[in-house]
Amino acid sequence: MTGSTTTATVCVAGCGPAGAVLGLLLARAGVEVVVLEKHADFLRDFRGDTVHPSTLDVLDELGLIDRFLALPHHKVSTVGFVRDGRRLDVADFSTLGLRYPYIAFVPQWDLLHLLTSEAARYPHFRLLLQAEAHDVVRQDGRVTGVRFRDPDGEHEVRAHLTVAADGRHSAVRRASGLRPREFGAPMDVLQFRISRRDTDPDEGYHLRMAAGKSVAVINRGAYWNIAYMIRKGGHDDLRRAGIQTLRDDVASLVGFLADRVGEVTGFDDTRFLEVRLDRLRRWHVPGLLLIGDAAHAMSPIAGVGINLAVQDAVAAANLLTGHLRRAQAKGKPVPDRATAAVQRRRWAPTVATQALQRSAQRFGIDRALRGQAKPPDFSAIARLPFVRALMSRLLGVGVRPEHVRVPPMPPRGQSVEGQGR
């Protein structure tokens, strides 16, 4: 099998939320698609697991919402912060009149398995695991596919369109020569779990700050997911200081967890996340489109990365399916104006969301981590009804929510009328 070449209309590098949604949407529209995933499965902890209301709408439009809600999950309808021991909600999705007025926290592997299992019902979908894209194939100035490695050796996928959905460290982006503009981030993050008790406060997703320290605390039902923020580049200093420093900071910020911080026995119980915030000026070259974190790495603030990536995938499917069907039928290349249209569609939502994250970093987290006597007090502004309504809309729905516009083809052995909703 070494040296084999596979052909498809579309090759998607990366089977995270963006790649999985795009692969499903194209396959159900009758477009031949190969999705490459470098890992052997989806079982990795501390991956993004926040599914926002607008993504829940997409799952509903795909007929998958009932199966999604049958997965183990926890719902949170508010996002806020705690200052001087008092909690203030800056977003409340229950006020928006949405069909799904909450963020659903679900293990990412369950979401990806749901999406790829549904995609596998269509004859035009193929998922290759342990297939790591590392280079692009070029011909006459166009990207015409990717080179990937698997346990059997080196292979190629030749495609009319290649889509890089392989994350913030995208190998396809690097091979294409595109370089993102770095906006910087004042912090990195250590993630870990602490058990939750029935007597704990009924708090959803909230940020706690004090001079020199900051944590995000997320109610996951059976446990609290803690995102402990450290100054950019300060991971080694923290490790030298010892795990008790982390425990003491968490205990001081989240008092009701003080008797449980010992559950974090050492740094092996944590996962380090290097926070990046960047954006490509150009998301496409002839034959190649980049979406999700490959095009715009998001900060973990408010957990909007999955939502932006899924919205990119839906927009790409809506705008490109007609061109891809013609390429599949007649062998014509996908015009550059078509991939440019995807960037135009998603540019404003990306810029606006990153601007919000940059403001939160600069005026909140950065000041706290610098050790200022007191983090800034935004409570008076956050209490204004129009501010809370705006934040609820921005965090829950986004600037330009996308909806599935491409009608499906029948899956194997089934009429369209037989597919879910």
UniProtKB/TrEMBL annotation:
Domain FAD-binding: residue ranges: 8-328
Keywords: Oxidoreductase
Top-level division of the source organism's lineage: Bacteria
Pfam families documented for this protein: FAD_binding_3
InterPro entries linked: FAD-bd, FAD/NAD-bd_sf, PheA/TfdB_FAD_monoxygenase
Gene3D superfamilies: FAD/NAD(P)-binding domain (3.50.50.60)
Listed GO MF terms: FAD binding; oxidoreductase activity
Name under which the protein is recorded: FAD-dependent oxidoreductase
Organism from which the protein derives: Nonomuraea diastatica
